[in-house]
Amino acid sequence: MRPTQAVIHLDNLRHNITTLMEHTASRSANRRRPLFCVAVKADGYGHGVCEVAEIALELGAEYLGVAAVSEATKLRSQGVGGPILLYSLTDPAEFATIAELDLAPFVADSEYIAKLDRAAADCRRVVGVHLKVDTGMGRVGCRPEEARDLASQILACGHLRLDGVCTHFPVADTPNSSFTRRQAERLAEVAAELRAAGINPGIVHAANSGAVIEYPETWFDMVRPGISVYGYYPSGDQERPLELKPVMEFRSQIVFTKRVPKGTGISYGLSYHTEKDTVIATVPAGYGDGFNRLLSNRGEVLIRGTRYPIVGRVCMDQFMVDIGPEPEVQTGDTVTLFGPDQDGPDAEEIANLTGTIPYEVTCSPTARVPRVYR
Ligand SMILES: *Cc1c(COP(=O)(O)O)cnc(C)c1O
């Protein structure tokens, strides 16, 4: 197997899920936790949708969350039978599959609801939907004032069931967010309004990772963590009360080393010249594997417990590391690009260097990078 791999540390995944479950159990006196929905969209944030789902369900997660019907198709074909929330709206051409796979889609407008009901009727199925209310994200979701009429419409549909009412938070990853608290209040008001109208709102849910970590008042009946399950905080702003362990280790191997004199240019554009006589190692991973080219002359890697600088431009399939004039490392040594090792870079460090967030970093290893499960 090519040495460039994404090793998925399933023990860390288990640790994170258990930690988050225990944390959400802390709110109530009888230590009953809210329902737990693990986001496995985007191929489990790059970790593998089926493998993550299997562990989440084994540990007692009640729901899985996907963004694409194709992801749910994959889960069902692997025998996953439980509830799967579909977080994104989709093309009506996929409604029959939603009904046949018994998915739980978010809905937010009248036309979508009517079309989904017709497709469910054609399949002779009943689809359980979750009404998405926009309380401040500015994305998909009805206005809170519309929720009651849409809920009534759902109840009047012969082939839909109202299973939940939910919202999403744009700034729950910031400390002491009164905006997030206000959103939760709006959702609670909507649920109360439905109940007052004799409508059972079903499961009320809102909390993404940021809210799971800091805002117990947003947990309602179910939480929907994603990034924290994979071992990262959603941002650098919040306090870090929970020990989360990175699950993905992006690694490769030294395949070649060469002693070069001072002043040798390295890689495309010759953007780096060696400052002294040294040894340059080549690592067979590049932006074609999802290793960001912005790490050229900036990032570091971990080899045998020591950090070494990336020198020159990251190529499509390879990059170079300066391992110093008297290297202790050699061809065949493992190179960690990011991962759980405290001494080396993690996805958050890579994100900070490349102007993005850990989410995008763990999603970035491309299809040619095999996922290896430990
Ligand atoms: C992705 C997603 C989540 C999880 O968000 P994290 O920030 O990764 O915890 C929760 N809810 C919805 C609707 C999502 O799309």
Topology:
Elements: E1 5-8, H1 10-25, E2 35-39, H2 41-45, H3 49-58, E3 63-66, H4 69-77, E4 84-86, H5 95-100, E5 104-107, H6 110-122, E6 127-132, H7 147-156, E7 160-166, H8 178-196, E8 203-207, H9 209-214, E9 222-223, E10 248-253, E11 256-260, E12 265-266, E13 272-273, E14 278-283, E15 300-303, E16 306-311, E17 319-322, E18 334-338, H10 347-354, H11 358-363, E19 371-373
Parallel strand pairs: 1-19, 2-3, 2-9, 3-4, 4-5, 5-6, 6-7, 7-8, 8-9
Antiparallel strand pairs: 1-10, 10-18, 11-14, 12-13, 14-17, 15-16, 16-17
Bound molecules: pyridoxal-5'-phosphate.
Pyridoxal-5'-phosphate binds next to loops.
Proportion of beta-strand residues: 15-25%
Tally of individual helices: 11
Q: Biggest β-sheet, characterized?
A: 8 strands, parallel, barrel
Give the fraction of residues assigned to helices: 25-40%
Rg from Cα: 24 Å
**Strand-and-helix sequence, N→C?**
EHEHHEHEHEHEHEHEHEEEEEEEEEEHHE
First-residue to last-residue Cα separation: 16 Å
Strands in their spatial order, largest beta sheet: 2-3-4-5-6-7-8-9
Fourth-level CATH superfamily of the largest domain: Alanine racemase
**CATH fold description of the largest domain:** TIM Barrel
Q: What structural category arises from helix and sheet content? A: alpha/beta
Mean pLDDT: 98
Question: What is the domain total for the residues?
Answer: 2
